[in-house]
Protein 1
Amino acid sequence: MIKDNPKSFSPLVNPEEEAFFAGPQTRWKEFKMILKIMIEFIRGFRMLHFVGPCVTVFGSARFEENDPFYKLAVRVGEEVSNMGFTVMTGGGPGIMEAANRGAKNVGGKSVGCNIILPFEQHPNPYLDKFMNFKYFFVRKVLLSKYSYAFVVMPGGFGTLDEFFEALTLMQTKVMRRFPVVLMCSEFHHHLYDYIQHLADYGTINKADLELFLMTDSIEEMETHIRKYAIDNFGLKRKNSVEANPLLGENS
């Protein structure tokens, strides 16, 4: 079916993303798009360069603070901070807010990579630093680049997207094996069963089930991260890298 005016409708709310669905553009438009993406990457690199080793906590923006999952995410943030990591999240409300809040409860560092959306997402009040991103793929790269572990709390499509991307990058040897912890076994047991189904059919290897740990225990999460992040990579506490004002950097 051919529309009389194909430009009268865009499937995307964010016009910055429209070029990805519009096919080839003029050279000038594509060059400007590349510049915008590059600038967003550089800003993210500068912001996160000095925050230290991070553990990223993924989860839904839709949980209120009286929800058990929110309260558990606070404890996750506290424990991650007590291990010496900076708690990184998507910067929004719900589980993200809870993990950042946990970091602040124990005097730890807390950062967020916030995506600009027409609903749900806004920076939470427990962030030492945050950056608003226009491009999902830039944000996803940065959430992975500075992390030594990933903790996956209950969430929706976005949380599952991050979970499976981390597993895919490790499975294909694109990224080193970092600990991935899938918290809340009751919430995720259907997901685990499906992953087991994939292994039974042979679309993934049975060994791929070892790429993540599913647990309800903060202590088991802590042990797993210590083994596969701190011990595996020889991480030690040290002073933060100093910022260089000549480069427009802020520590």
Note: The chain has a mean pLDDT of 87.
Protein 2
Amino acid sequence: MASPMSAGNFLDVLRDEGITVVEVGDWRTHNRNHKGPWGPVHGVMIHHTVTSGTANTVRICRDGYASLPGPLCHGVIAKNGSLHLVGYGRANHAGLGDDDVLRAVIAERALPTDNEANTDGNRHFYGFECENLGDGEDPWPAAQLETIERAAAAVCRWHGWNSRSVIGHREWQPGKIDPRGFSMNTMRERIHNRLK
């Protein structure tokens, strides 16, 4: 069982991986911990935002909506590759997902098909939201994909996890399609190579 790293460690490992990090407001203490525990953590989840414009995307991911309060992730990965920290602790990003998928992530083995929504993912995953319309046409710039790779690898390296600890939201929760526009298997290969 892995306890989440401190906010300071999180910032350090991201910067040590060569990422341009932007700290947004009180991100270190902005969380949903009053709704339940954060941890033990077992992996990293990647999302797309269905938004455009970095400032707008960061604001939404920090503040959330009336029906889904923020933070909606720990970090927002912008089109230019910058990573904006908006919260730390429990965040409203993963929702309920498949317990079989969680067991596979913990065991670092191939993922089964997600067919249930019976397990609290907000407790167990670091979450990165990536600025993209999610329509399959909005491009994924090389700088953005590289930061996804670097951010996931940084967290995995700190915890001693391998690339199988990184999943897409679509692999966790039935009905989700994010991230749309790139292959999670290819991204895991990139993370694997970075961790070598």
Note: The radius of gyration is 15 Å.
